[in-house]
Structure formats: C-alpha cells, structure tokens
Amino acid sequence: MSNDTRTHHPLSVISLVVTAVLWSSGGVLIKLIDWNPLAIAGMRSAVAAALIMIVVRKPKFHFSPVQIGGAISFSATVICFVSATKLTTAANAILLQYTAPVYTALFAWRFLGERTSWVDWATIAVVFGGVTLFFLDDLSRGGYIGNILALLAGVAHAWLGLFLRKQKDASPYESILLGNMLTAVIGLPFMLGASLSILDWTGLALLGVFQLGFSYILYAYAIKRVRALDAMLIFMIEPILSPIWVFLVVGESPGRWAIVGGAVVIISVTIRSIHALGGSGRLS
Questions:
Q1: Which of 88, 165, 189, 265 has CA atoms 20 to 30 A from the CA of 234?
Q2: 96: closest CA among 156, 30, 21, 184?
Q3: Measuring CA to CA, how many Å separate 132 from each of 65, 135, 256, 261?
C-alpha cells in the first residue's frame, strides 16, 4: 500500500462515516415525497449531477469499460433502492441493500486483487442466512418485489464500489456524474405532468444536494484510499440510522422477522470488521 493511502486514511474514514450518515436520510425523505419512484430517482440525480459538475468543473470522460461500468452500477443502485423503499419498508430496503459486502467479498479478489479471507466467507454464509428471514414476514406482493429490488440494489452497490475502487489511480467522480446523468434521463418521462408540493420539492432538494450529491463526492474521495470491502463495512452505520429516522418521522416499523434478519446482518459484518481491525490495526 502506498504512503499516500496511509497518510489520507483517517480523513477517508471520516469521509465514509459522514457519507453513511447522509445516506441514512434517504429512506425518510423518499417516504415523504408523494411521487413515482423513478421520477424521484431521476430528479434527485439531476440535482446531484449539477452539484458534482460544479465540484469537478472539467470532468474527463474517456468512456472506458470501468468508467461506464461504474455509471451503470450507480444508476442501478439508486433506481432499485428508491423503488424498493416505496414498495417495502425502509428498514427492509436499506438492510437488504447492505448485503453488498457479501458481493464485494465475492468479486473483489478477482476484480481488484483484494484477497477475501475465511472470516469474510463465514460472514457471507451468516449474512445470507439473515437475508432469508426478511421473506418470512407477512408481506404483500409489492413487499416481496420491494425486497427483491433491495437485494438487487445491494448487488449493484457492491459493483459500484468495485468499479470506483478500480479507478483509485484515476478519477472516480466521472462515473458518479455519468451515473447521475443516466438516472436523470431514465426518470425524465416519469417526471412529466407532476404537481408537487413545497414539501416534496424540499425533500427532492435535500436528496439531491446532501443525501446523494455531497455524500458521493465524499465517497469518491475516500474509496481511492480504503479497500472496497472495508468501505462497505463502515457504511453499516446507514442501515442502523435509516430505520430510526423513518420510525421517528413516518411511524413505519419493520416486521418481526426483518428485525431479526437485520440484526443478523449487522452483527455479523460488525464482528468481521472488528476482526479486521484487530488483525491489521487499520482498515486500509
């Protein structure tokens, strides 16, 4: 690992923690906005793209497979997550998305050369056991579809981290910018003819500027300096906070089995993270 990575590591960890806290506001804001989920995802990304363009100023689009892969993964992540949040409980959506470390561990060795340990594999087995519990709740058809979309968001989120990490010696901001542009284009047809309240517009502005735009600027900075899997584990702050915000503001609570499954997921990856810290003295 380079000296540059070690020098920037503490700031990178702080950036990831702030990112997770900002991301945790997504569930409650999405629940409060009365609009089509694809329209929400598109408008949120349009606002975020404008912010990122201001920060990056002169983006370098070379449209390499890695840059395009990152953009597609980003778009799939945000579209699946917003749709899942509308179809199932916010707790289910965020907790199932946070199976992402499982897929990161599965693909990181071949894609990035970042080795997956036996502890990672044990964590994967336990996490998949926890995921099955989510589907034991008495869910509507939409709830089941929401859970499946949340799992797909987890797969896409893992690949996003892998593609951004692959660009650690370049600039990952362009992938995020392209992903936001792609999402805005996909969501555009669903935005037409909408009549939104001031509360809806306020929620969209908060989603675009802080929950998506500023957070991913921090994420792109930090992912160049920490392992993709360790970044995912730091993000476990989000699934803890997100259901709390939704419960306090909207009054929505997850099902009994979802709580048990979520606890299994969070505890298992937390134990793995502590093991990694104890073994290396740092996450990077």
A1: 88
A2: 156
A3: 34, 6, 13, 7
Output the CA–CA distances (angstroms, integers) from residue 121 to 1, 37, 118, 268, 283, in the order listed: 24, 34, 5, 11, 18
**Separation of alpha carbons 60 and 54, rounded Å:** 14
By CB atoms closer than 10 A (0-12, 13-18, 19+), residue 135 is: middle
Rounded Cα gap, residues 98 and 128, in angstroms: 11
User: Environment class of residue 148 by beta-carbon count within 10 Å: exposed (0-12), middle (13-18) or buried (19+)?
Assistant: middle
* 235: Cα separation from own chain's centroid: 8
Q: What is the reported pTM?
A: 0.79
| 8-state DSSP, 250 | T
Smallest Cα–Cα separation from 119: which of 246, 281, 275?
A: 275
Question: For 56-84, how does the pLDDT look when each residue is reduced to its tens digit (9 = 90+)?
Answer: 888 888 899 999 999 999 999 999 999 99
pLDDT tens-digit readout, 132-146 = 787 777 666 678 899
Angle at which helices 173-191 and 37-56 cross, to 10°: 140
